[in-house]
Amino acid sequence: MKFFAKSALCLALFVAGNALAATDLVIATVNNGHMVEMAKLGKFFEQDNPDIRLKWVTLEEAVLRQRVTLDIATRSGQFDVMTIGMYETTIWGKKDWLVELKPDAAYDVDDLLPTIRAGVSVGDKLYAAPFYGESSMIMYRSDLVKKAGMTIEDRPTWNHLRDVAAKIHDPENGVYGICLRGKPGWGDNMALFGTMVNSFGGQWFDMNWKPQLTSQPWKNAANFYVDLLKKYGPPGSSSNSFNEILALFNQGKCGIWIDATIAASFITDPKQSTVADKVAFAQSPVGVTDRGANWLWAWSLAIPKSAKHVDAAQRFVRWATSKEYIALVARETGWGNVPTGTRKSTYANPAFQKAAVFAAAEQKAIYSADPNNSTLPKSPYTGVQFATIPEFQAIGAATGQQLSAALLGKVSVDEALAISQKMAEREMRKAGYYK
């Protein structure tokens, strides 16, 4: 008995010692559905890696960007893993602020979609691993469009889409013609509006890096956007971002929604959406060109050079962005709910094709986005809905504030663009792009 008691005590001390020695891996992420699911499934990683405990810091999109940008710029080491996008990956990778990722052969880096892989790489070095990738597309209530006697072609014009929105707009019965992002931010309202500017024939900067925010294409796009939402959008559009509109759409309150392709998996899920069987998809609308009409983005996991636990972080990033993780999500919640837009093997999987009615439209949108050729006039920058320069974050955020103010009627569209233009010129001069 003494022997067994002693053995049990030793075992308990051993387990307790291992628990005390476990590494706390701090992960900063965004509060959207797929990331929330990753946090829930983190228990499986901890089971296979008992020496690591996952600590989640889940934040709203704009707050996440502020926190991780501050952390990496000051090298404070608050986070071991950061959720970042293509914009940050390119700039921070060039600044040597990120740890290069070197996944093993089992990870199969060649399985990543080429446009997504390129967006999280600098040269041939991978600086972030895509958790899910996306473009933007039209998601709409096919029943409402049919009832109105209208159709939506695969790449309609903005004018046609406005006409459809007008026909199905029925606020008395809680249905709004169109829902678009209005919350200010370079990754919020400016993500959608940036593609509108491209499609209306505009650009952020000309070949001399001079801002073009008061050009005619910008004025045309901004007036169209503000008028569209004021007439056929839901109340409070200036406060709506992805999650707010997702909730509205799932409640049957949006006739048309243009946003991230990743939304398709949520609005077609009958557990989340009241209109799951009434949704159809089309490629993003055009103004005068289809160039840059739909964005390209990937929420990715990266390791800052200031991370305290790089080896543990590498292990986690490999796990969370692997084919095995996608299979885990499929097993736990179904193939229709897996993070998409990253791997060729996902789209080639018959089970995914059967479950995801949106798969073909999503893949087509991702493949059609070209960050190197996203504007009708030639531009000096890469990026579709953003310009990959450090100054863009401030310029985009300030412009988003002005666009939101115009939507609220606090300023006219022309005033909003004039204020944004002056601010952009000041930033670009200060950074030395021109005198």
Structural class: alpha/beta
Shape descriptor reads globular
Count the beta strands. 10
> What is the name of the CATH architecture of the largest domain?
3-Layer(aba) Sandwich
Number of helical regions: 18
From the alpha-carbon coordinates, what is the Rg to the nearest angstrom?
23 Å
Distance between termini? 86 Å
Query: Could you name the CATH topology of the largest domain?
Result: D-Maltodextrin-Binding Protein, domain 2
Q: Tell me about the largest β-sheet.
A: 8 strands, mixed
Low-confidence stretches: 1-5, 10-19
Beta content:
5-15%
Order of helices and strands: HEHEHEHHEEEHHEHHHEHEEHHHHHHH
CATH superfamily of the largest domain: Periplasmic binding protein-like II
How many structural domains does the protein architecture include? 2
How much helical structure, as a percent, in the residues?
Answer: 40-55%
- The overall average pLDDT, rounded, is 94
CATH class of the largest domain: Alpha Beta
Notes on the structure:
The protein is an alpha/beta fold and 435 residues long. It has 2 domains: 2-133 and 297-355, Periplasmic binding protein-like II (D-Maltodextrin-Binding Protein, domain 2, 3-Layer(aba) Sandwich), CATH 3.40.190.10; 134-295 and 371-430, D-Maltodextrin-Binding Protein, domain 2 (3-Layer(aba) Sandwich). It is built from 18 helices and 10 strands. It has helices at residues 2-21, 33-48, 61-74, 86-94, 114-119, 142-147, 158-168, 189-199, 216-232, 242-250, 264-267, 310-320, 323-333, 344-348, 350-355, 359-368, 392-408, 413-430; strands at 23-30, 52-59, 81-84, 121-122, 125-126, 129-141, 176-179, 254-260, 279-283, 296-302. Strands 1, 2, 3, 6, 7, 8, 9 and 10 form an 8-stranded mixed β-sheet that branches. Strands 4-5 form a two-stranded antiparallel sheet. A hairpin with a 2-residue loop joins strand 4 and strand 5 (125-126). Helix 8 (189-199) packs across helix 9 and helix 17 runs antiparallel to helix 18. It starts with a helix and ends in a 5-residue tail after the last helix.
